[in-house]
Amino acid sequence: MNKQIKMVVFDMAGTTVNEDNVVYKTLRKAINEAGFNFSLDEVLIQGAGKEKKHAIRSVLSVYSGITNEVLTEQIYSSFIEQLTDAYVSAPIAPQPDANALLNALKERDILTVLNTGYDRKTAQLIIDKMGWTSGVNFDILVTASDVGKNRPDPDMILLAMEQLGITESAAVIKVGDSIIDIEEGKNAGCGLTVGITTGAHTAEQLASANPDLVIDNLLELLPLIAQHQA
Question: Phi, psi at residue 140, to the nearest 5°?
């Protein structure tokens, strides 16, 4: 008998939230304004899913060999300032079938968690703009600013488990659109890790992290969950 699924942890941007990569476009702009010329693809490859200071460090280090914490802080400050303005006009909506899936999971008494490499203020801004409410559309939000270590470390998932009283990580699914989401799920010991092609990384890139499944639509989770219910 398969382990019964009790909780699903979803990444936000690119997974449950469609915001047309406004965060990474803004991050690219802030980095390039510091004297660089990185493409959006380069920023996505190194930065997707990561806490945003970590993302800046990764982009600078991998592509330019630069490790400069003062520069990282300057870029991050500019990014946060620009992001607030970007979100005022950015079209933000749930990903296709996100609402339907969340409702279906609630009907099955499966807990739902949103987790993200954003800080809490940014994540809450996104959630508010979509009209979602904790306790109604999903159970809890866990953000990069809530934990000491961020993806690929498992701290956000472990905190969600603690807050919701889930004691066995094998009863948890992690779903995300980036390699680091899958790595986070594996490091947390999740029973299943699922990549989705609606965001940062391609099916091929996601497959390189060896998830249990790669999907194109969130509703594809329901048959998988059914297979693992008692």
Answer: -145, 160
Nearest to 220 by CA among 96, 113, 111: 96
Q: What is the CA radius of gyration of the chain?
A: 17
Domain of residue 45: give its range. 22-89
Mean pLDDT by 10 residues, the chain (230 residues): 84 91 91 96 87 92 94 94 83 93 96 92 88 95 92 94 95 95 96 93 93 96 84
Question: Please, where are the H alpha helices in the chain?
Answer: 22-32, 40-47, 52-64, 69-89, 98-107, 120-130, 155-164, 179-187, 203-207, 221-227
- Amino acid of residue 74: Q
* Position 1 in a domain: no
d(CA 41, CA 46): 9
